[in-house]
Specification:
Length: 406
Amino acid sequence: LAFKTDYATMEKELEKYVRQSKYKTSRATFKDKLLFENSMNSAPMSESEANANLGDLLFNLRRYDEAETKLKESLAADPLGGMANATLGMLKMRQEKYGEAESYLEKAVKSESSNYRIYYQYAYVLSHEGKESIQTTISTEKKEKIKNALKKAIEINPSFPGSYDLMAYLSLRTGEDIDEGIDYLSKALKLSPGNQTFMLNLANLYLRKRDIEKAIPIVESVYKTSDEQGIRDYASQLLASLREYQNQVAKAKENGYQISEDSNPGIRMIRREGVDPEKPLTPEEEKARDRDFQNQSINSMMRKPASSKEKRILGYLSKIECKGGSITYTVNTEGVPTKLESEDFESLELMAFKRDMTDLEIGCGSIKRDTFAVVTYLPKMGLKAGVLGTIVAIEFVPEDFILQER
């Protein structure tokens, strides 16, 4: 025990102390006289408002089914009720029904102007992938909605760090306004010093800028100090990738290469500078050398296997079917189809190392074009007929990419 005694002895000592009827007191003198309200105004509450408040209370008590019933009763009487729409939107978000959550939160935003969390949750839902599809880009219209909602949340409550972090996430995901994203995360870290999720997001933004020298110390700090195994494992993988990439760049520069300025941040293209004027490389040799460095760089930046049981295949993601509570993927490898499955899209780790991903949306029964990718999965027995395992990650790569097995 913390008090170095047993419960029976502690109870007796407490009883003895209480029976003394003597208690220590402290006296404090305030500089200004305390003011108290001597009156209170009250107003009748409608049935809709009562149900909204009760639903909100039940939601915070995590009694979600009862909360949903009361919130829907409230909205039946007042479809535009701000509290009911906001709480039901957050409830649907917990249920991972992001389309419904967006609809409710959008109504809440229109009717509620003083609650920063409503604007934040609305922005979060808009930026979230959800279970319905894999979207590699965010439309301009949606980006503006997210930014406007977050700016409003910051205006109402500038001390809430989550709004700044989500704004930075938007930069990380789109690859736009990276410096602005770094500024937002710096503000988030001032409000929440040592937040390791924010620190890793900041490191990823520096990685987007190819500023490896700034990214590595941040990830090292998280790896050395984190008590959470999941964060520590992620930091370890990211640190290994950063160092490997750093070595690749150093070797490239030794051989007269430099990072291509016009390539997509995910591709890590390296191009040749003229190091041997007496024997310049032919255009074909330049392309072959660039392709070789591109392959090495992508391989160094790819997700590291979480266990020796994971397997990777390289092929075209060509078909997605959603039936019976699971999603089945077909990956064609040299003409041979491989079937894998997952419970949802949200649990997948996604990364793009190619440029032609604009507006690519992959969802149930819809895939605009076969897409070349490295697919990681865990082999499992007892799945549906023909399904080899559970998919873990999809990494989109150029069609001339060569996977280096570890």
